[in-house]
């Protein structure tokens, strides 16, 4: 037999559980954005290289490794965009020799360059294709 305290607990718990199990019809089951794609960039005295050099439109994380003897900054800049694409120019903070910096960017379909401010360090190209599928 339940004491008066136990009966009150059950009296409050049962309606709360019943209400929690009922969902409204206003839940939006919209597609989620695609996963972040990691793009690695390596800065050497001869130039910048990126891998992969081709991705689908969406969110990327650019991870730049400085393999030179001088501090560097990496810039991701849009060059040629598909119709409706938004221009982009993002720059990392200083990257010490042997250091790594990251930046996140939403990229639209088009061509982008990954550059430094150092003379003699050639740019890399990043080609962005149509939008990636949403996450499962």
How would you describe this structure to a colleague?
There is one protein chain. The chain has a domain at about 35-130: Cupredoxins -  blue copper proteins (Immunoglobulin-like), CATH 2.60.40.420. By secondary structure, the chain is mainly β. The protein has one helix spanning about 5-20, and strands at about 35-45, 45-50, 55-65, 75-80, 90, 100-105, 110-115, 125-130. The protein has 1 helix and 8 strands; from the N terminus they run αββββββββ. Strands 1, 2, 3, 4, 5, 6, 7 and 8 form an 8-stranded mixed beta sheet that branches.
Which descriptors would you attach to this protein?
single chain, 136 residues, mainly beta, Immunoglobulin-like, eight-stranded mixed β-sheet, 1 helix, 43% strand
CATH topology of the domain at 37-131: Immunoglobulin-like
Enumerate the spans where pLDDT stays under 50 for 5 or more consecutive residues.
none
Any idea what the shape is? elongated
- Main β-sheet: number of strands, strand sense, barrel status? 8 strands, mixed
Order of helices and strands: HEEEEEEEE
Reading off the top of the CATH hierarchy, the class of the domain at 37-131 is best stated as Mainly Beta
- Roughly how many Å apart are the termini? 49 Å
Tally of helical runs: 1
Q: Give me the CATH superfamily of the domain at 37-131.
A: Cupredoxins -  blue copper proteins
Helix content: 10-25%
Give a nutshell description of this structure.
It contains 1 helix and 8 strands, in the order αββββββββ. The protein is mainly β. The chain has a domain at 37-131: Cupredoxins -  blue copper proteins (Immunoglobulin-like), CATH 2.60.40.420.
């Amino acid at each position: 037999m339940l004491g008066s305290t136990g009966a009150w607990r059950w009296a409050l718990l049962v309606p709360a559980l019943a209400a929690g199990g009922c969902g409204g019809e206003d839940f939006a089951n919209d597609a989620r954005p695609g996963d972040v794609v990691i793009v690695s960039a390596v800065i050497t005295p001869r130039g910048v290289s990126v891998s992969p050099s081709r991705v689908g439109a969406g969110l990327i994380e650019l991870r730049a490794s400085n393999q030179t003897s001088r501090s560097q900054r990496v810039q991701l800049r849009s060059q040629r965009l598909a119709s409706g694409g938004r221009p982009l120019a993002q720059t990392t903070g200083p990257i010490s020799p042997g250091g790594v910096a990251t930046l996140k960017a939403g990229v639209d379909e088009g061509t982008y360059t990954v550059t430094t401010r150092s003379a003699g360090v050639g740019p890399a190209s990043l080609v962005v294709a149509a939008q990636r599928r949403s996450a499962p």
